[in-house]
Amino acid sequence: MPRELEKYEEIERSINKKFRKDIWNKFITAINEYKLIEENDCIGVCISGGKDSMILAVLMKMLQKYSKFPFSLRFIVMDPGYNPENRKRTEENLKLLNIEAEIFETDIFKITETVTESPCYLCARMRRGHLYSKAKSLGCNKIALGHHMSDVIETTLLGIMYGSQIQGMLPRLKSTNFEGMELIRPLYCILEQDIIKWADYNELSFIRCACRFTENTETDLGASKRLEIKELISELKKNNPQIEHNIFKSIHNCNVDTLIEYKLNGETHSFLERF
Questions:
Q1: What are the pLDDT digits (tens) for 161-204?
Q2: How far is the C-alpha of 57 from the C-alpha of 75, rounded, in Å?
Q3: How confident is the model over 143-152, as a mean pLDDT?
Q4: 166 burial class (0-12, 13-18, 19+ CB within 10 angstroms)?
Q5: What CA–CA distance (Å, rounded) separates 275 from 270?
Q6: Separation CA 76–CA 64 (nearest Å)
Q7: CA distance 230 to 224
Q8: CA-based diameter of the chain, in Å?
Q9: Cys-Cys with 188: which of 30, 31, 33, 183 at CB 3.0–4.6 Å?
Q10: Beta strands of 58-171 (E only): which ranges?
């Protein structure tokens, strides 16, 4: 008689079975297509406590089990100043998912509360710096973040509509401040809606945005521009179900010959140079 599966095993099995096409296969596609993981890598998997970073941790743990070559993982949770409820929820979910993570505290929220201009930008930069530093101290050469395909699509549209630029989000990039370190995004080919379906199917409840500016609002996005983009995409999908994939593929199929100007390594080039 087969033994009864632990909850974390059921959750992993759901990825292998019910969500194999939309989550596992797309996860493997990103790993292979963008060469995100190499033999003997030591990867710091950064966990914020939200659904995206939690499924990232589960997927990376599963990949390590099935991988044809060795690599090591360090699961890292940075507490930027969570309220007690968010800290407790994160710890409970780590235990539920059988993830042994190192939690370290910072005072990022306390610092950004005193900033009036671009606190979100400062918070993001400080988070990234702390995570790189911690991962490097643990012997890592890469950190993995939970940005997914929907983040890539939304960032592209945000750049066009509000930043007056065409700018994507790379699946991997080298750190400019931490020598020898890279950032990878293994969820790059997975849509957010499929992560939500996975969480709902397994009756999992994760923290939303834990930011002090948003934790008391109805949604962690509030009235942000990103929420506007999400709603726009949702509306466009009614007439074109492939809209997300089309936008995503567009940053893989850039025709530089048709652009008036473009930047390469920070230097601006004009079509007139080739005219």
A1: 999 999 999 999 999 999 999 999 999 999 999 999 999 999 99
A2: 7
A3: 97
A4: middle
A5: 9
A6: 16
A7: 10
A8: 74
A9: 30
A10: 72-79, 101-105, 142-144
- Amino acid, single-letter form, for residue 212: R
Q: Residue with structure tokens 């007139």?
A: 272
Residue 117: HSE in the Cβ half-sphere, 13 Å Cα cutoff? 0
Residue with tokens 């930011």: 211
Q: With b meaning 16 or more CB within 10 Å and e meaning fewer, what string describes 182-218?
A: bbbbbbbbbbbebbeebbeebebebbbbbbbebeeee
What's the pTM value of the predicted model, to 2 decimals? 0.91
> Phi first, then psi: what are they for 191, rounded to 5°?
-80, 145
Task: Tell me if residue 118 falls in helix, strand or coil.
Answer: coil
Residues 6+ apart with CB under 8 A from 127: 78, 80, 108
What the block records as the tokens of 135 is: 């991962």
Q: What is the pLDDT of residue 119?
A: 72
CA dist., res. 147 & res. 187, Å (int): 6
Residue found by looking up tokens 């109805």 in the block: 218
Closest CA to 170 of 158, 156, 191, 190: 156
DSSP 49: S
Are 229 and 235 in contact by the 8 Å Cβ rule? The answer is: no
Alpha-carbon gap, residue 3 to 25, rounded angstroms: 27
Express the helix, strand and coil content of the chain in percent, nearest 5 each. Answer: 45, 15, 40
Token pair for 234: 């949702």
Strands, DSSP E only, in 185-273? 261-264, 267-270
* Residue 87 Cα distances to 7, 22, 51, angstroms: 21, 30, 14
Report the amino acid identity of residue 35: K
